[in-house]
Amino acid sequence: MSEVNEVEQKARGMGWLPKEQFRGQPERWIDAEKYVQRGEEFIPFLQATNRKLEGELATTNGRLTEISTQLKEATETIDALKEFRTELNKERVEELKGNLVEGIKAAREEGDVEKEEQLREKLAEAKVVAKEPDKKPEVRQEPRQDVTKLPEWQDFVRDNPWWNEDPVMRSASVAIGEKMAAEHKLDGMTQAQRFAAIAKETKMRFGLEEEPQRQSRVEGGRGGGGRQEQQAGEKTWNDLPADTKAACDRLEDRLVGKKAGQFKDRESYRKNWTDEYFRKNPNG
């Protein structure tokens, strides 16, 4: 193959056309050798430009991946907060809203209209979560049972003759039972255990049974390094009803972690849940 043909073949590979096939203005046509020369001079510039564009594309893709992750985390947190709305959560919603606004700005700068609209929708949801009032779950009222028909009641009356003999103790026992039920002290007990607990508390009130000695408020004694017990009357996680604890546990994986709007650890999450529950339900 002649040197001319080799040059023309290389030029054709770079986009060159013979004069008879050239469709542009005749004065713009150049021969194969000159076309190859110009191309070789221009290729390094194209390569540098291409490397720059690839770097910018990688940066853009990384930023869009970050925005996608942010959108996913925001969706998960918003869904969880819809189930757990409290006054203290407003601060976390505001933090989440700020992150979404930053994501919207970044998506706009990247020209990703679809991602920007998705983040705007999540921002609107976050605003709704912040405004909506807490909704207390509906409690289905179970039909009241006539306890006097139960065999456990017959055992209670037999073991506690004061019920029929002392109207004052009987009235006090009814009030004590209602108070213990309101404080959830009878939760999880069998009917016989409830009757026994009420009877014991009633007899203690009337001095018929010795009150158990109270434990020290400091574990391990002085200087033992133990922590203080809770203050008298202070409610803790253990005082919550079983169904409330279960609801809290269901949301724990979605509201505890390092994502925006979440609690930093399990202890702060449970304390927040406990404080909010007894703020709204002071009598349990």
Architecture overview:
With 284 residues, the chain is mostly helical. Helix content is 62%, strand content 0%. The protein has ten helices and no strands. The protein has helices at residues 3-13, 32-83, 89-110, 113-131, 151-159, 162-165, 167-182, 191-205, 242-255, 266-280. The longest helix has 52 residues, at 32-83. The radius of gyration is 38 Å and the shape is rod-shaped. Residues 211-229 have low confidence and may be disordered.
User: Level of helix content?
Assistant: 55-70%
Structural class: mainly alpha
Tally the beta strands: 0
Mean pLDDT: 76
Strand content: under 5%
Poorly predicted regions: 211-229
The number of helical segments is 10
How are helices and strands ordered from N to C? HHHHHHHHHH
How would a crystallographer describe the biggest sheet? Answer: none
How many whole angstroms does the radius of gyration measure? 38 Å
CA-to-CA gap between the ends? 98 Å
The geometry reads as rod-shaped
Concise structural overview:
The protein has helices spanning 3-13, 32-83, 89-110, 113-131, 151-159, 162-165, 167-182, 191-205, 242-255, 266-280. By secondary structure, the protein is mainly α.
Features:
284 residues, 10 helices, 0% strand, rod-shaped
Question: Topology of this structure?
Answer:
Layout: H1 3-13, H2 32-83, H3 89-110, H4 113-131, H5 151-159, H6 162-165, H7 167-182, H8 191-205, H9 242-255, H10 266-280
